Queue: 4 jobs
Job 1
Amino acid sequence: MSRVGLAARALRLALNKAHADPTADYDAASSDYDTFFSPVMGLHSVEALDSVPVRPGDTVVELACGTGHLTAEIVRRLRGVGAVHAVDKSPGMLRVAREKVLPLAQDAPRLTVELAEGDMDSFIRSRPTGAADLVVVGWAICYTKPSRLLAQIERVLKPGGRVVVIETRADAHRALTERLEKIFAHDPSLLTGLIRVTLPKDAATVARWFVKAGLTVDIQREGAQSIPARTPEEAVEWVTRSGAAAGFKTAVDSGREQLVLDRLTAGLAELLAKEGRLDIRHTFVVVTGTKQADSIPARRRAADEGAPVV
């Protein structure tokens, strides 16, 4: 086993810009997402939404809407009046979201619902300055440069507008990630791409991102949820079919993907035999913030970056 070899492999991949794209994993998980992820973690998403007001007439921007679990909840809370502008990069996830969300707006002429396919950074830059009452980012800020994204969110918000972020913590699924690291350290050639994510250590980390972007932090809290897996096979199935392992497909040698999964299952079996149970926890953070004033920095950013201003 060579961690030095793994580090050298990772450096070489980074220099060659061999970055894994999580879109393929989310496409693959789209038909199972509401069977695996939403019933387990969706409750925490809704609780995060509960911490900010969604009022009839509001304009809400949702970044990385996935299968529309929160989007549908936002639409219901708008009660037929307002606007939802949502985006996701995965065509598969969006297909499920449209089937779920668009029927809710069919008989509501005073409600605008937009579900766009695209990159969340480009999407938020396209939004007009000072136009949103609320911006929601669920399980996705890790795929961006967080401070930069939040600076754009601050620009897009109206004075007094709110933002809520729920995100996986860096120590999530530790039993799985530690065993994957051992697998790749034993044979670094299995790794063909790097998964680029910025998972926060804790809620205080996300709060610092908020402050750097000019937002006032209102709530910051930690959470944890044990995934429903009693066997190694159930654990591997949950992370691969829930989207929790997004990026895996393009990070691993495509011809040996099953080999990695088999070794991961075997490693978890050893853990189960040693400890007598599997308790794999999905840790996460929730942070909310407010734009206190129509700030000069926000207007300057809009002008500098060519973003539309209202």
Job 2
Amino acid sequence: MSSVSTAVPDFTWARLVPELLVTDVNASLHFWRDLCGFSVAFDRLHEGFAYLDLDGAQIMLEERDRSRNWIVGPMEAPFGRGINFQVGVRTIAPILASLAAADWPLFMKPEEKWYRTGDVETGVRQFLVQDPDGYLIRFSARLGQRRTP
């Protein structure tokens, strides 16, 4: 059964969209959609595929071990070693509450961090969590900017 498409005329396609190979697309949908708040723009679940969106942050999920995967090396858990995907959100609170209610462990607890960005610092409130296959996701809400000390 396919989800209703949200790919309506005002849908904006991101110019860079990671496609993650996953073990079980339904388990991944539970994490990304149900716990983290992404919506399904469209899917082909019979092919193990879903295209997700959260306020313009977009990601594709594709079940591995299907006939058409572009695998360049061994797929060993945790997947995505050496990369984290930053997802900009308005606030991290609802995602944290949803993950806590599901007893989903955090990789890094929430923190406030200021990063130098040119002549100013940009502040974020962020945390890290792993999806069912071990991909590392960093949810980040902007706090604003300040002059560098």
Job 3
Amino acid sequence: MSANPARHHFLISHIENEFLARDDVTDRSHDINHARRVMHSALAIAAKEGGGNEEVIIAAAYLHDWINLPKNHPDRHLASALSADAARPILKRIGFSPANIDATAHAILTHSFSAGVQPETIEAQALQDADRLEALGAIGLARVFTVAGQLGTELFCADDPFALHRRLDDRRYAVDHFAVKLLKLPETMQTDAGRVEAEKRCIVLRSFLHSLAEELRSPMRW
């Protein structure tokens, strides 16, 4: 993983200590294990795409949800900008150069779906793709229903699970979120490596939806 394993070990250890010191463990979908998975995915994507600054990727992966607002919060779209600003003093304490602080802040700012800011570097592109991969596959399946439980969202509409005769509403029904956002994520990937993995993980989601349709004896249009 590392051209400088000692430096990377120091970096990961330091940021994890900061992370764990402030984590109130109320949001298991954005806990330290999520950050670790994003880090490993982002490093793997960047390596396949030709490189990138590994220290920037590691720091951005751990700090990208530093300010984590609930999905139904009115300021949710500002969370990544707030996280980017909050990351700067942490990175300065670690000894990041001004250029690497800016690069890390850019990656954090642009990772968010709701922020709508285009990532301009391989580090930012890899982070955005890695974070979106967390919404797909077996992990994504677990996370979508974890978040639904936190928000008090119904699992699906009992009368019309796959919205054949109604408008999609993923604020009310968790299964609607698959059609509204999750199954569209592969086409939003910034890198070829991210897109290939996203398509692979979408197979898991589609398999779940087909099984759900069979169990509910319901037609399915997605």
Job 4
Amino acid sequence: MVSSELEPPDGRAGIDAGLVKRLIAAQFPRWRGLDVVPVEVDGWDNRTYRLGEEMTVRLPTAEGYAPAVAKENTWLPRLAPSLPVAVPPVLAEGEPGEGYPYPWSVRGWLPGETASYERVDDMARFAADVAGFLHALQRCPTAGGPPAGAHSFYRGASPAHYDEQTRRCLTRLRGHVDTARAEAVWEAALAAEWRGTPVWFHGDIAHGNLLVDGGKLTAVIDFGTSGVGDPACDLVIAWVLFSGSDGSREAFRRAAGAAGAAGTAGTAGHDADTWARARGWALWKAMLVLAQSLERDPADETEAAAQRRVIRDVLDDHDRFG
């Protein structure tokens, strides 16, 4: 069995709309009359509910995700003025109560839909805009920022933290992917040690955390795995969302590397070693999800096919650039 980073308990910590209503009534009675409705697209580490028309309530699903509440509530207001698109406005922080054991938060609602090919007018331009957001984030002052570690699930640190898990995946996936090439990618990632100046990273730049409106990037959400360290983990989207066939992957590569290559102050340079570590992060996660998918339902090819595509693209990218 290949386990994930953190498995929330059954029932997602007992979270439902009734609990949210009770928490709001007890701790923020001024909002007690507002409707509470689950959001259409929810995450794994938090459950999110609409609170009226202009707010959301966000509750961690397990103890390991709870530290993100204070981290985001502290740092999002400080980062927001320096970023080119919106991030979640922090309105209030709730305390454990009503049988719910973790801190939680109330945020302002951000309009938009999660990114997809159908919702983006120009994917190459969108890729460049995502890279622009990352450069702006990396230029934010890091003094006092949380260094990569357990709170970020080791995003921003070396991918070597997941070496044992990755090697279990390599064993489990023999016959399903080209594990000899995959092992070469992983070894290259481990060898490409990071020696740069720590910068801010988001930690989970994925389509579900990128909001679009009118076909363009308008907001980035879910900074729960953010911190200060190596930004290579934020390049994984190059293979997960962007494609070689429409030019978006190359547009992202150029834009993500441009400022660093030019030596812009405060921006991490995305050199060959940075991309090698990024391929390692992408490979680890894709193999982990594929192994779990095969264990759950070997006949279901939907998730498996998506992860095989990511793995194939990462391996091809290594052969081309590595």
